[in-house]
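Appendix B, record 7
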Amino acid sequence: MIQPEPPSFLRVYQPQLRYYLVDEGAYTDEELGLTPTPLSALFSVENAGDSWATLQRAVDRVVAIIQADPNKERIDRVITRWIKRHLNRLSAEVNLEQLNSLIEDKDMLAENLENLVKKERLQGIEQGIQQGMQQGYQKAQAEVEAAEKRMIRTVINMLQAGLSDDQVVAIADITPEELKAIKAQQSQH
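Structure tokens (predicted):
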């Protein structure tokens, strides 16, 4: 890490470190479930990013692992602080100020996560409704445009067949102004 290399007499003071890479994303939830340790439970929480319901299941797993640990008070404090930070990073709109222990406040956290799931579902439903309305509007607009084109072709065909303007207006059920606009548009082409 030091460039250029330090003099040889300083090399003995250079740290020689080895690392063991633990890639939390490489483990499936099933694999993590086979190792009931606080670290595997935290990996489950980290990997539970697809929904709040999945996150709730991961938190339940963390609580079960903490309760089974002989050092549960200390681990509970550490993991509770970590969970609070993690939920803040996820931009979870959860009131975490009173959360001091996952074991004692599990129901409060579960209620907050359940409210988030409901809110997420409602937002999904609203988004689906808006998309459906937009698609319906676009489809209706396309149908109106297609009907207008058919009507204009019909009017042009009637004029080319030799019908008078009055006959075309009566048959096509259009106003004389609309017929005038169709004729003007046709003469431009």
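Remarks on this record: Helices lie at 29-33, 38-47, 52-68, 72-89, 106-160, 165-172, 176-188. The mean pLDDT is 81.
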